[in-house]
Amino acid sequence: MDTNTRNYLTVTAGYWAFTVTDGAIRMLVVLYFHLLGYSPFEVAMLFLFYEVFGIVTNLVGGWLGARIGLNLTMHIGMGLQVVALSMLTVPDAWLTVAYVMLAQALSGIAKDLNKMSAKATVKTLVGAGGESRLFKYVAVLTGSKNALKGAGFFIGAALLELIGFRGALAVLAGMLAVVLIVTAILLPSGVGRMASKPKFTQVFSNTPAINWLSAARFFLFGARDVWFVVGLPVFLYSVLGWSFTQVGTFMAAWVIGYGMVQAAAPRLLHLGRSDNAVRRHPGGRTARRWALLLAIVPAGIAFALHQGWPPGEVLIVGLILFGVLFAINSAVHSYLILAYSDVEKVSMSVGFYYMANAGGRLAGTVLSGLVYQTQGIEGCLWWSAGFVLAAFLLSLRLPEVSEPKSAAAAA
């Protein structure tokens, strides 16, 4: 096994371990604080700082990674997650809303440091060119992350039932601490660190392709969360009469399936085409085509519900279609940000891009509750379609990626 492949596998394993804890802690907090008598609004507020600090972390984290190295920022993220998990093991009397919001803020910082570091590291391991291999590496890393986050939902709930809230947190913190030590030993130092120390103002990209892609990413993820975060689970529970277990299991299964499609995106994009006709990597044209297809799905679901079709069947089938198309869109975007980025500045480009991603999640989360309360699930779906259409229009400015050129030249 060559050094780059070994390092890629090490980064991926660390990312996997972190992602399991990220999914598990979300499920643990939701279930346990519901049992403590927190209202749904109070439970939702516990995650506010998680999203807000994700935006800040992505902005600062890329700059920090370029100065001190991506392996170090990844391990700082793991360490902060261990601290966040440990903070929640205190007695119930200490678990005020403010205290838990602080722990969730640390977890949000940790998650985005880890994600930015892992994905930017892939670019440094592949280097300029090699775009086909880069697409495959990114698709596997991103897809497996989402599948494992769904698995983390199950693991968190199972540990809560088997060994209780604090026991579950202790197991997760101990597991991640071990992974932190192992990856710190195996990974070389200084990965992704720029030779010259970049100024903070350099975190704002001056590459048009990265700016257009980041704007499209904002609306793409807002389109998912505007109906998925609040509107969908509340509708399944309050209107269709599903139990909490049924809602949680269905949504976790969706996340796992979505991740599997993401990992398989390179193969799915080439179905039915001969090798001679295949572009070995996607470009701006690919992003536009799949965004337009995705916009049709939430609009179609909303129209079907308005026509009085059975809501359960419509939502299940529609969510499956949405998940498949959204996963491909997300995989294409995750590849393009690395393809458009210069190898030396990749951490700052990825940080800026995921700042937009976090902003889209935050906007979608807030709108999901507001729109569902005022316009119902159909309103959430029409907003989703509008957000995807905005992502499509922004993607009109995205260029293609040429294999022989460096990432900087391609941008």
From TrEMBL:
Keyword set, alphabetical order: Membrane, Transmembrane, Transmembrane helix
Transmembrane portions of the chain: 12-35, 47-70, 82-106, 163-187, 226-244, 250-269, 290-309, 315-340, 352-375, 381-398
Top-rank lineage group of the source organism: Bacteria
Pfam families for this protein: MFS_1 (PF07690)
Molecular function as annotated in GO: transmembrane transporter activity
PANTHER family associated with the record: MAJOR FACILITATOR SUPERFAMILY DOMAIN, GENERAL SUBSTRATE TRANSPORTER (PTHR23547), MAJOR FACILITATOR SUPERFAMILY MFS_1 (PTHR23547:SF1)
Protein name: Major Facilitator Superfamily protein
Naturally occurring in which organism (per UniProt): Thiocapsa roseopersicina
